[in-house]
Amino acid sequence: MEREVLYTLLNKVKARITLQRGVRLAFAGLLGGSAAGVILLGLGRLFPLLHVELWLLIFCSCGIGTGVAVGIWKRATVREAARAVDHGGAEDAVMTALDVLEGKTRASEAIVRLQREAASEAAIEYVDRLKEKLPWPAWRQWRKAAIGLASLWLVAAALLLFPNPMKDKAQAMSEARAVLEEMQSELEESKEELNEAALNEEDRLKLEQTLEELRKELESLGLDNSEVLKELAETLEKLGEMAEETKQAMQSLQDISREMSKTRGLEELGQALEKMDASAVEQAVDRLRNEMKELSEEERAQLADLLEELASMQESKGAEDLQEALQEAAEQMRNGEAAASAGESDGLSTLQDALGEGLSKAALEQLARSMADRISEGGSRLAEGLSQQGGEVPSSWTEAIGKSGTSGSNSGSGENSGSQSGANGNDGSGQPTGETQGNGGQTPGGSQGNGGQSPGQGQGGASGSGGQGAGSGNGGQGTGNGSGTGGHGAGSGGQGAGLGAGDRNLVTTPRSLEGEGNVEVDGGPATGGETQTGGQSPVIDGTTRPYEDVYNEYAAEAKKSLGRTKLPASLQDKVKQYFDEIQPDR
């Protein structure tokens, strides 16, 4: 019984010793973790490090956790508790009784009983005054450590509150790393698309080699964004050259498919070309060869004439192989030969090969432009991150973006004003009106908005002569009245904003098409009209791209959609007619 009482009392002493040890070690861990966190915060102002605030909390938490874990692992034993009781005034009575109970010391029964009684009494007295016997350390013992911890947290608070110039740089580097990883993933996806595309082996190897070179460069350059942008710019130029080289093939196929789709006997081949399906083209050519014998001489002549016409269209486009293939097919069609004679070439087979080559070039153009868009998007994000880091974006990247037409916006400002005056007339009277319109703005890419024109119209024998506007912005309208006698009254167009110099084949997407302000119209006498003024025209902030490029992309996408979805024939015809009417060369 006394044995159990003694161990129960010693366990209470042991628990308090363990608690004090754990708290002391946890405090030491917090102090060490705080010191490590403050050092990391300081390094975060010298180097671009991410999430230093989070790491401060992690270090402090780990320090506390480590201290508690060590305290539990190094928890006090019963013998340590016995020594603590003896040091409190028991004079080794508890340790002696403990040795006897554990069999480490031999003694007579009477002595053992007396030792246990003495040990129990000493332990009871010690436990009753446990808080006094094992007090928490006094403030003077904790003061230095507490002041040190408070100082560390004051320094940490100052480092956290004051702006850190390296933080934005670190975030930019992190985003750059994410962009590079994303680009690596997109390159792998592009290689998969390349394997599925209808490309001949030469075109496939050409594009695959370009992508593989870019992938290797990205891996070797790491996070050197400037060098990465230079490499991306070089790849953009290569892809742009590929797209330009094969651009004419796409246009030729579109022209051929459009004409064939409207011609009886060739509509299946035309539809196969629209879908850019090489296997469908092969089937259509085989069916045409089989049906050739059933056609009348007049029908074959009509088809041959169309093929010859299509062949002549290719001469101006530099497609000699396709032109020759169409001519051979036309000759075979006119002669009514379903298959080639021994030792002679088959015109339809030659046409099939040429069309297959054209489909490969068209697919190459689409893939090259698609990959260029992906690279341009990722590169733009890298360039933005490089600017945030205080670095300089390579000029080669800016030039490559400008050439590819994937970036740029219109900017410009100006007021739209128009003036209208009526010229003297000799006979009769009339009221000429002039209208100015323009398309303004200048793009960073180097192109400018289209020039506007001010046509005038006269009534009663007078005619308005067109004027030319000048300025920038998107044009407003101006009208003016004048009257004259005689049959030669004329009004001259006024000046309007929104006019510039540049290529007319540019497509601009404005944010707003409406001007501001009221238009005032003053009537003028026969000797000349008064001035009218228009309101302000808003600046258009959009992008400009060659109309032919935009048309080709939208037309190709529409054809893909028609191939994927079963639509009524009438609706398909409407879509085809729409794209026929808005062709760049119409």
What can you see in these coordinates?
The chain has 586 residues and is mainly alpha-helical. It folds into four domains: 2-161, no CATH class; 247-361, no CATH class; 409-542, no CATH class; 548-581. The chain has 18 helices and seven strands. It has helices at residues 2-43, 52-73, 78-90, 93-101, 109-128, 130-133, 139-161, 165-196, 201-221, 225-261, 267-275, 278-291, 297-315, 320-335, 347-388, 395-404, 547-564, 569-581; strands at 421-422, 433-434, 456-457, 463-465, 490-492, 506-508, 544-546. The strands form three sheets. The protein has a three-stranded mixed beta sheet with strand order 1-5-4, with no helix packed on it. Helix 4 (93-101) crosses helix 5 and helix 14 runs antiparallel to helix 15 (347-388). The longest helix is centred in the N-terminal third of the chain and has 42 residues, at 2-43. It is elongated and about 140 Å long.
